[in-house]
């Protein structure tokens, strides 16, 4: 069991006395609905059975001692609940620190410190939300440890609040929501404008979800993520002079085509087109799934990638290579980039009999073209955060 190794490491570093809790929060993959969450649109993510394991113990003083098995060269990083500010040298610990800070901002001040050891089996920087997984996990641990009266949905909102305001990444709600609210065998059809959601079963009788990790690292904060968001906001402001809408997600395809010329900037018009069309694709995709129409769902995934490549311009040669090679293989139902883009991962639905061939052929073509290898993960859809021991 993975968590037993993390517990062992905790005892080795911090000792075995006191009450020690073992926890898990998943990673997530978004099946369709990319860059719609901050545009008031719909998303369709699911939690995975890979994620972040945490072993934690409350302290009697105010000290925070954090250790990650993924960054063991950094050793134990110390800080205090009294001085919660983002610091470059704090590295990955800015994520749990941000959540502790956010609890305080919401009127739930954490007065005591903790010892925490983390291990994630999500590839770091892959776009499967390792940071949001750490945020939700930290919130879940704080709730368990200090008895705070918060729901899983609250944990998602607190995680997003901390990432926006402590870590300076202007992310939408999708990642934290998918992780906090995950349900085995289901994706979450979430309206990000209202937080209304429903669980939709993902029935893949003869197929698997395969994540292809480009191994091109990117940091959300210094990628063009905030730039894309600003371009969409400019497009919305121009539209609002003519149309009474609160978000790009409020427009249908036809309405966008009717009013698009009021967006006088070509780049902003392309970004808005993606946001509107992707939202409508996501609504359609969920209908297709409900009708057991996996082929049409896959086609919408493919169209999503083309839009992210051409209109939103967030793919890059690595993700395009993974997707375009996937499209060549018989048995691939759909394939697209997932996450913020500029590196990270693709998600593909692949018929069982084609999975091995997919990994071999896409992997080989990718290495030939890019010069280094991609990694492949055949994943299952799992539940939200849990205490394991």
How would you summarize what this structure contains?
This protein has helices at 2-14, 94-105, 130-146, 152-165, 174-180, 225-240, 253-259, 266-290, 294-310, 316-327, 355-370; strands at residues 21-30, 42-43, 45-58, 63-68, 77-80, 114-120, 186-191, 196-201, 207-213, 332-338, 345-351, 375-379, 386-387. The protein is an alpha+beta fold.
Structure characteristics:
389 residues; alpha+beta; 6-stranded mixed beta sheet; 4-stranded antiparallel beta sheet; 13 strands; 40% helix; 21% strand
The total count of helices amounts to 11
Instruction: Let me know the largest β-sheet.
Output: 6 strands, mixed
Q: How far is the N terminus from the C terminus?
A: 12 Å
Estimated structural class = alpha+beta
Overall mean pLDDT stands at 95
Radius of gyration: 21 Å
Q: What topology, given as strand order, has the largest sheet?
A: 5-4-6-3-1-13
> Looking at the structure, what is the overall shape?
globular
Helix-strand pattern = HEEEEEHEHHHEEEHHHHHEEHEE
**Helix content bin:** 40-55%
